[in-house]
Structures are given as C-alpha cells and as structure tokens.
Amino acid sequence: MEPPPSPGPERLFDSHRLPGDGFLLLALLLYAPVGFCLLVLRVFLGIHVFLVSCALPDSVLRRFVVRTMCAVLGLVARQEDSGLRDHRVRVLISNHVTPFDHNIVNLLTSCSTPLLNSPPSFVCWSRGFMEMDGRGELVESLKRFCASTRLPPTPLLLFPEEEATNGREGLLRFSSWPFSIQDVVQPLTLRVQRPLVSVTVSDASWVSELLWSLFVPFTVYQVRWLRPVHRQLGEGSEEFSLRVQQLVAKELGQTGTQLTPADKAEHMKRQRHPRLRPQSAQSFPPSPGPSPDVQLATLAQRVKEVLPHVPLGVIQRDLGMRKGRLTTGCVDLTITNLLEGAVTFMPEDISERTQALPTASTPKAFDACLMMMTSQAL
C-alpha cells in the first residue's frame, strides 16, 4: 500500500507566526492591547488551573472542572462521536498539532503520554507527561504498563508522528513502535483552529506556544473518535502503522506523507539559513571575466606598447567604448587601422630611440610593427 504523492515540508510546517494578509495583520495590531491584558490575566488564572489539576484526583469531576477553567484560559476542547470510544483499548493514536494535544485529550478521557527524548524532570511531570526511562527500554516499559491489571486501566495516548505539524496539509510518517505494543489501537483525529495567528510554528518552544495560546482570544481543539483498528493476520508493525496513518489522513482530508522528524529538522535548518546554496550558485557565476573598463585599458596599453607615438586617447577611441561594449575588440585590427591610415592622429613626441621608428603609413613600418608584436609575443 503506497501513499499518494505528498506535499513537501514547507507545506506541513509554518515558519511565520504572524499572518501575511494585510487585513488580518491590521486586526491583530488592533487586538494587541486586549491580547496583552488577557495574557497577564490568564497567566495568574493558569497557576490556579495547575494547582487544581494537581490537587484533585483523576476523575470525571476533575476533568470537568479543569476543562471549564481551561475554557476561561481560551483553550476549548470539543469531541465528536464519543460513543465510539472503546474503554477496553489501551493504546490511543492521534495526529500531532501542538505541544498541548495530550493535555486536551486528557480533559476528555483519562490517558497517559510518555515524553520522548527527554529525561524525567519536574517540567516533564508538570506538563502532564509520563516519566519514562531511556528510549531503548521505552517499548518494553509501555508493554508492561498496558499489561498491568490496575483499575481503572489508563490507556496510552501516543503520537506516532513524533513531531507537530500545522495540521492542514498532511501527516508525517507514522513510526512503527507505537503499533508494536498491542494488536489493537483506537485512532482519533485532532483539528486545531485559532484566529489571527498560526496554530503552531516549527521552531517555537512550548513556552512560546503557551504564551500565544493565552494571548489569542481562543484556541479550539476538535477531537473526533474513530473505530478501533485491529492488526490483521500476519501484518507487521510497519504495515499496521501505514494503514492507520492512511485512515487518519483520510478522516482529516489530508495526505499521509513519508516525511520524518529528520526531514523537519533539515527544513528548520534551511529556514535558519534561507537559500544559502542557491544564492551561492547565483552570486558567483563561473568565469565572469574582467569589466569592460579594465579590458579596454588593458587592450589600449598593449597597442600603446607597439605604437608609442600614437596618443592613448586615439587608441581608446578606436577600440571604443560604445554603451559598454567594444567596437573592434581586437588589438591587431586597431594596429592595422592606425598603420594603414584609417585613423588620423597627431603623433606624440617620443624618445630618440623611438623617433627612429618610420612614419605610420608605409609598408615597411607595417612590417616592422608586426615584427615587434611577434617578438613581444615570444
């Protein structure tokens, strides 16, 4: 099963937060004073939300209270087809849009999400992630977690993309390790909408994303539950992940791509150094050659060495500069014009050694000059 042609990384990741449309930019400037006031107010309210979420045990009441308080912060969580949620499934699979996707889903159903590529810390715990050990033992640890008999069972919420996209064009390639934990997963789709600014920026930190979430009027997270998907007989983890990726992409109206987090990192590197290689190729064309003025002076000096009694201005005039291009472009032709009298001039006074040179209108003078040119070339 091969995925259809996919968009490039420039369409999956936003590099600019502010809108490019002039009307939206003007609206953002007018809203900015209100946004800053909301930001300050919501920072203090957010501290209370954090304390309440830590104080209350995981329950329906806690999720309802925290969800209501998050709506005051401008983080609105909605869900569709909640009846399809199968509480027996221990692995939930979702696309990834913002650094707070797991927090939003946790407002709708109890779940746990491990933080990849990060050691256990207070920041990890305060953001609502599971504290796991090294990445090498991650899959085995998650298998043991799902196999535990604790009641009520807490499902895992995993993001196989491993990196967030803008949520508009396509999905990153799903990693296969989340599909090696159990033989049945329940996918869900996540759509995020926000006025005035981009939902997420590729190189922004989670702190920056949080501040922008508190600044804008609201951010709507729309969760839609899909039916559980079972592993087919003889199906490997790679095929299983690809099948679920295409299912999620179809529900979102997007494309499942083969891009990976490594492609995102390369894209971000190019964003920091925009068009570095193309500019180098365009800025340094091969063998540009000397400028016309330098070329004219060089050619005139060569003629002057052969015919020292000819004024330099006459030589340059014959070689000529007409709108940046040479009229003859040839030293031999200019010398021929001067020796044959095609160009009239008043001879300059030269030293006694050069005064013995015949006048420039006889065949002997022409032969002598040719001999001088040949000797100089040798």
List the SSEs and their pairings.
Elements: H1 9-12, H2 22-55, H3 60-72, E1 75-80, E2 91-94, H4 101-108, H5 122-126, H6 138-147, E3 156-158, E4 170-171, E5 184-193, H7 206-215, E6 219-225, E7 229-230, H8 237-252, E8 255-256, H9 261-272, H10 276-283, H11 292-306, H12 312-319, H13 331-339, H14 352-355, H15 363-377
Parallel strand pairs: 1-6, 2-3, 2-5, 4-8
Antiparallel strand pairs: 5-6, 5-7
Would you write up a description of this structure?
This is Lipid droplet-regulating VLDL assembly factor AUP1. It is a peripheral membrane protein. This protein is an alpha/beta fold. Helix content is 45%, strand content 10%. It has 15 helices and 8 strands. It has helices spanning 9-12, 22-55, 60-72, 101-108, 122-126, 138-147, 206-215, 237-252, 261-272, 276-283, 292-306, 312-319, 331-339, 352-355, 363-377; strands spanning 75-80, 91-94, 156-158, 170-171, 184-193, 219-225, 229-230, 255-256. The strands form 2 sheets. Strands 1, 2, 3, 5, 6 and 7 form a 6-stranded mixed sheet that branches. Strands 4-8 form a two-stranded parallel ribbon. Helix 2 (22-55) crosses helix 7. It is elongated. The chain starts with 8 loop residues before the first helix and ends with a helix. Mean pLDDT is 80; it is low at 276-287, 321-325, 352-366 and 374-378.
**Helical amount:** 40-55%
Question: How many helix segments?
Answer: 15
| Mean pLDDT metric | 80
Radius of gyration: 38 Å
Gross morphology is elongated
Question: Any low-confidence stretches, pLDDT <50, length ≥5?
Answer: 276-287, 321-325, 352-366, 374-378
- Could you give a short account of the major beta sheet? 6 strands, mixed
Number of domains: 2
**Structural class based on helices, strands and sheet pairing:** alpha/beta
N→C terminal distance:
73 Å
Number of strands: 8
Helix-strand string:
HHHEEHHHEEEHEEHEHHHHHHH
Strand coverage percent: 5-15%
Keywords: Endoplasmic reticulum, Lipid droplet, Membrane, Transmembrane, Transmembrane helix
Protein name: Lipid droplet-regulating VLDL assembly factor AUP1
Domain CUE: 295-343
GO molecular function, one term: ubiquitin binding
